[in-house]
Structure formats: structure tokens, C-alpha cells
Amino acid sequence: MTSPPTEKRSPTEPKGKAAPKRAKRSARPARTEDFSAAGMQRTLEQVEQELHSRYPQADLSPIASSFAFAAEAHGDQKRVSGEPYVSHPLAVARILAELGLDPVAVTAAFLHDVPEDTEYSLGDVEERFGADVARLVDGVTKLGKFSTLNAEQQQAENIRKMFLAMAEDIRVVLIKLADRLHNMRTLGALPPEKQLRIAKQTAEIYAPLAERLGIWQMKWELEDLSFKYIDPEAYRELAGQLESHRRGREAYVERAMEVLDEALRDSGIEADLSGRPKHIFSIYKKMQRKSAEFGEIYDVHALRVLVEDVRECYASLGVVHSLWRPIPGQFDDYIAMPKNNGYQSLHTAVVALDGKPLEVQIRSHEMHRISEVGIAAHWRYKEGSRSDRAYDAKLAWVRQLMDWQQDVSDATEFIEGVKLDIFQDQVFVFTPRGDVKDMPAGATPLDFAYRIHTEVGHACIGAKVNNRLVPLDYKLKNGDIVDIVTTKSAHGPSRDWLNIVTTRHAREKIRQWFKHQERDENIAHGKQVLDRELHRLARTSLDKVPLETLEELVDHHNLKSVDDFYAAVGYGQIGAQQVVSRLGVSDDVDEVQLPQVAPPPRQPGGVSVRGVGDLLVRFSKCCHPIPGDPIMGFITRGRGVTVHLATCPTVVNERAVERLIDVEWETAAQQTYPIAILIEAYDRTGLLSEISNGVADDKINIVAASVNVHKDHRATVQATLEVSSVAQLARVMAHLEQLKDVYSVQRDRT
Predict the structure, then answer these.
(1) Interstrand relation of 436-440 and 426-430 (parallel, antiparallel or unpaired)
(2) Which residues in the chain come in under a pLDDT of 50?
(3) Which CATH class is domain 37-239?
(4) Phi-psi bin for 342: left (phi > 0), alpha (psi -120 to 50), beta?
(5) Where are the domains positioned within the chain?
(6) How large is the greatest C-alpha to C-alpha distance in the chain, in angstroms?
(7) d(CA 697, CA 532)
């Protein structure tokens, strides 16, 4: 490694040498958009110039004609902010051109809203611009409105459609990301409730998707824009802190760059140095994760070093660590161990000038280019090209996702699986042969076995991690070497494995195995599981559930018979807790005893009566409506309005139709209800703490708790939780049941 400078000097007093060479930033500066005809024409010319510089031999005539067609199709349509609607596809096209996408994708960007928002069809697009453009437009276009789907289900189906199209052509999702980015840039024109809904979806789906594809410049911007609307107070506070310290921070980084540039030159390294832009949400996350104050975050002061190749990356790291003292535990080598999206860089934090922490990122110019545009840098035409193993490896998770979705009928469940398996933090583990596998954080050796191959998972009887036997529920850590122990005599998975695996892929493979087992066994097991959950969550039994209600569930899950439904529960395709949250159950009490107070003001997440002032509202226990369900109100004598499911026999068969009234769920934040639960467990030190942490992990508040310890070392914990729905209650009870030494968790109706 190149030696550091030897002459004696203070690092705070650089010698009078030339200023360090500044790196060119690939991220485009913010522009003031001109929506006049002349302004949009100039933007169109810029798009054509960008494409010509990257694709000099390409036919660019469709660019101008597709913009003209989009302008004609959208006509006088305006965006909510008042700009001509065609300005939106123009902005999307510009984003894609700057990412390096080809003319076909840019043409599709101009036309991506035409079939959905104008009188022209997808067939019209194909006739004018060809099948390739039409296929991309179709992949981005939302599904039609179906009366059988609520808004949440429609959103889920649209996202699933996008992922399916993405598996065929990555350009589909790049168009969608550019579309979402421009919508987020102009989100301020929408009503607050839409701002919040779109921002949450962006933070949960689109920003992680941009990160998974390695498009960091888009990921940072989507996160910051989402954060601005999700938590505006925290955003303003943090943005204010950054701005108030901006001049001092820039001056500090400038001094540090001068010192480092001199040291690198003395070591024979020519480098481009720049201050790294600050991303508000990333700083916020670090503050939350580390429970740290703003001044304790290491990358508040940060710079980036770009060099020629890998050798100079490590040589530069040596210079940095010789110049300033490294902070323990703050070094990451993403060159030797790239992230699953292909990101490569060296990250280190040091105590630099004036004793202040400084983060330094070191990478080659090529690594930096790829880090900015991600998969777009690797995209190539499939037709007529040779197989690109690096490109295919980067999209292996998409194929895994598509294999899994074939076994999932519910789009909402599919989206939840995407969030859990694909977009959460990753750990990197090794096979005994040294191959690297990325797994979701919290994955177990069983998840790893099914990731290798389905048959390896089925035949698993144990696991070695770092050459030591570990239980199958061991949580894998970065750098673990995992060796799966198998046997040919294995009889397949255990049902208990469904409580051990954390990935949807492994869970679906286990469910499929049981699905193919004896049907009668699955039916019996399904009845047993469902009856147990009904008793636990609703203090009732399966034989008290009306046949009509069960048949509605059969239709909901697209099954043929009630026995098929029981079998699906038995082999795990349908979760028993999910069923209980939708079932109409009843006991001797006519109405749910939940505290319900007539507003003022309207209760968040409550129910409003259309066209009527504030009324006392009760929830019927015959059908258990929960937020999101279609509902109907029934006027009771002297007791206000009782809310039922719209499909509840009580209202469907009601002859006194004049007593029925339209009601709807409030769209604001969810209302919570106090629900008491009983936890039976073995008494031990730390039990109550683990229960509290388990509840907190589900973002649920405990309003009261008491513990009764029996002579046989059995502890009974009674806790009152604030939950918003039966589904949320079921989730937290399931999590608590998985805690060590917990025997059972039930609702307390005493």
C-alpha cells in the first residue's frame, strides 16, 4: 500500500497547493420547469439530444411524433396543479433519457397515460408505434376498475401487474419509477389525505424497489419526498438543522477535501473529490436506529473520493486511515462484498479536523456511475444479444418473486410478501463452497435450505453454521457459513416449520408439500386449527359459524367447496387468523362491547353516517366489521346506529329497509380499541420485558398489565392492548405465542 505523506504538518493547515479536483455529479440539479409551448419544445429537444449522445445510430423520429400524439390525446387536460397534462409524460421521458434508457422506452414514457386517461386505446398505440412500445405502455397502465375490488385491492393488483411485466422487461419498472418520481415532485398540489396515501406507498414499495435495482439517485429522492409528507414536522426540523449548519458544514468539508487531496497526491493518487449530498431521511433513520442526536451522526459531514480502479480504492483507504483515526465499527467493504443490487464502494468514518466525525466513501468512476443509475447501466436489448450473467444475477430475485407469486392468489398477500422478503434488510451468508447468498434479515437455516432447492428444504434434518450445529430457528448473521444436513429417509417438512421460516418462498414450498398430502388429513387439521383460533380470538367454536358465512369465504378464496376451504386452512394456504378476522361470529351478546363515543370531533378511523350529524355508533357482533370492510348501518330504537357488514344476513334480509342507512369508514388515521388478552407462560426473569417488546414491535400500545404467578411456576399475564382491528390483534397474538416459554395467548372476555 502506498505510504502516507511523511512531511510534518498540521492536518488543519494545508500547504498552498492547487485546490482538489472536483468530481462531476451525475445527479441532475433541480430545474425550474417551463410549461409554455416553447418551454416544452426546448425540453423535448434536450431529450432528443440526450438520446442522440447515447444512441447515435438510433432512429429518433418516434420521439417527436409520440410527444405530438400524447399532446393531441391529452388535449386540454390539466394536472391538479394546473399545468398541461402532457407536461407529466414529458418530464417522465426526460428522467428516463437521463438514466440512459433507449428510444423505445422513452417513446413509451410519452404514451404511458394515453390508454388510461384518453379516448385512445392500447391498440391505437400499437398501430402507430409498434408492439414493443405498446407492450411497455401496457405494463405500466393500471388495471381497469372492478366493482368486486376495493381501492386497496386494486392498488395491490396494479402493483402485481407491474412486477409481472417487469419480469419480462425491466424497462417497465424503470418507466413506473420515473412516473412516480415526477408525481412525488409535484405532490404538493393534491389534498393532504392523498399526499399521505401516495407518500406511504412510495416509501413502502417504490423507494425500496429503486434501491433493490441500485438506482440510488432515485431512491434517495423518493425517500426524502415521502418523508416530507409522512412526517412533515420531523422533516422540517431536520431540514432546518441541516440548513442552519450548511455553511459551516460546507466549509468543513472543503477544508477536509484540501487536506485529503494533498495527501493523496503525495501518495501518487489522482482523485476526484466532492462533498456528498445530504439525504434527510437517511440521517433521520440513523438517528432513530442509534438513538442519537443530530450532531452524533457520522455522515452529516461526508465526502466522496473517485479514483481510477480497485487498487487505488484500497490505496486511498490507507491514506485516509493514516491521516485520521478510524472510528471502530464504522468500516464497510462493499467492493469485496457488493450489495445485492451491485453497489460497490468503501465506507469509513474517521475522527478528522477539529475532532469531528467525517464519513468518507471511496469508489472507482465506474462504480460511481453504476451506483447512480443501477440496473439501467446494465440494461441491454435481449433480442440478438448474448447472455449477460452479471445482468441476470442482478435480477435473480425478480424470477424468485415470480415463482412465488404463482402460488399466491391474493394480491394483497403478494405485496406483503414483497415488502417482507425483497425489500427488508439483507444478510449475506456463504455456502460451504464459498458461494454468497443474500437472505432477508431474520432468515433461518430452513429459509436458506429452501433457497438452495426445494428438495434440500424437504430433506433437511439439521444445520451447521460456522461448523457448529445450530437449531433450525437460528437467525443467520452476515458472514455465516451455512451447511444444511439432509437425509434421504426424510419424510418431508414438519408443520412446525411454518412457525420457523420467515421467507414467503420457504413457507409456500412447505404449504405445497402439505397440500399434496392426504386430503382427509388436511380437512381434519384445518377444522382443528380453525376451531382453536375461533376459541382463542372470539371465544366461540366452529360449529357456531353459519354455513352461509363459510360459503362466502369459499367464494372469496375462489374455492369449490367448504371441504376445499378446510383443506386449504389445513395445509397452510389460508391462515386461520386471517379467517377469524373475516368471519362473522356470535355469542350470547348482541353487540361488540367496544368503547364507542359519539364525536366531537369525528373519531379518527371511525364511522360516519352520510347526510346525518353525529350519532352514537355501535358495531354489530354478528358479522364483526373492521376498517376497510364494506358496511351498512341499521337504525336501532334508542341506541343509535349499529354497523354491519354490507353482506351480513341481518341487513340483507331486513324487510324494514327504511331502517337501513349508508355509513362509511373515516379515511383518517385508524381508531384503536382496548382489547384484553390472557397470556399463559412459564415464569422466568425477563418474561414481562419480552412480552412488552413483542407488543411494541407490532407498534401496539399496552394500556394496562398485571401478572399473577402460581405455585407451579406458571404465570398468567393479563394485558389490555390498543388495536385497530381483529387482524392486527391476531398478528400480535401470533407473535407473542412464538416467544420462549409462552404456552398460549387468548382474548380475555371475563
Answers:
(1) antiparallel
(2) 1-17, 23-30, 143-149, 380-387, 584-605, 611, 668-669
(3) mainly alpha
(4) left
(5) 37-239, 242-373, 425-497, 517-582, 607-665, 673-747
(6) 97
(7) 25
For 377, the grid coordinates are: 447501466
The dihedral sign for the CA sequence 64, 167, 56, 370: positive
CB distance 509 to 457 below 8 Å: yes
The pLDDT of residue 406? 53
Q: Which fold has domain 242-373?
A: Beta Polymerase; domain 2 (3.30.460)
Residue 93's nearest CA partner among 67, 122, 123 is 67
Catalytic residue among 116, 237, 520, 590: 116
Query: Looking at the DSSP assignment, which residues form a beta bridge with residue 491?
Result: none
The confidence score (pLDDT) of residue 386 equals 46
Edge-first strand order for the sheet with 460-465 is 468-470, 460-465, 482-486
Helices 310-323 and 246-266: angle between axes, nearest 10 degrees: 110
Per-residue pLDDT, 226: 92
The residue length of the chain stands at 750
Q: Taking a C-beta distance cutoff of 8 angstroms, is the pair 117, 77 a contact?
A: yes
DSSP 538-562: HS--GGGS-HHHHHHHHHHTT-SSH
**∠ CA 452-457-459, rounded to 5°:** 125
| 3-state class (DSSP) for residue 430 | strand
**What pTM value is reported for the model?**
0.53
For residue 175, what is its C-alpha cell? Answer: 418507466
Strands 302-307 and 357-364 come out as: parallel
The pLDDT score that the predictor gives to residue 308 is 92
All three cell numbers of 640, joined, read 343509535
Cis before 471 (ω within 30): no
Compute CA distances 379 → 62, 177, 372, 385, 391, whole Å.
Answer: 21, 15, 14, 11, 7
- Architecture of the 673-747 domain: 2-Layer Sandwich (3.30)
Annotated active-site residue 117? The verdict is yes
Tell me, what's the pLDDT at 439? 81
Alpha carbons 267 and 6: distance in angstroms, whole number: 10
State the pLDDT at residue 260.
Answer: 92
Is 425-497 CATH 3.10.20.30?
A: yes
Per the residue annotation, which of 83, 117, 138, 737 is the catalytic one? Answer: 117
Angle CA(614)–CA(192)–CA(605) in degrees, nearest 5?
40
- pLDDT confidence of residue 520: 75
pLDDT of residue 539: 65
312 annotated active-site:
no
Decide if 172 contacts 398 (C-beta within 8 A).
no
Q: Is 292 helix (H, G, I), strand (E, B) or coil?
A: coil
| Residues in CB range of 295: below 8 A, 6 or more apart | none
DSSP string, 498-511: GGT--SHHHHHHHH
pLDDT number for residue 310: 92
Closest CA relative to residue 517, chosen from 456, 571, 565, 575: 571
Q: Is 213 in contact with 395 (CB distance < 8 Å)?
A: no
Residues 6 or more apart in contact with residue 741 via CB below 8 angstroms: 681, 682, 684, 687
Res 29: pLDDT = 42
Q: Where are the beta strands (DSSP E) in 68-116?
A: none
How far is the C-alpha of 128 from the C-alpha of 694, rounded, in Å?
A: 57
The amino acid occupying position 730 is A
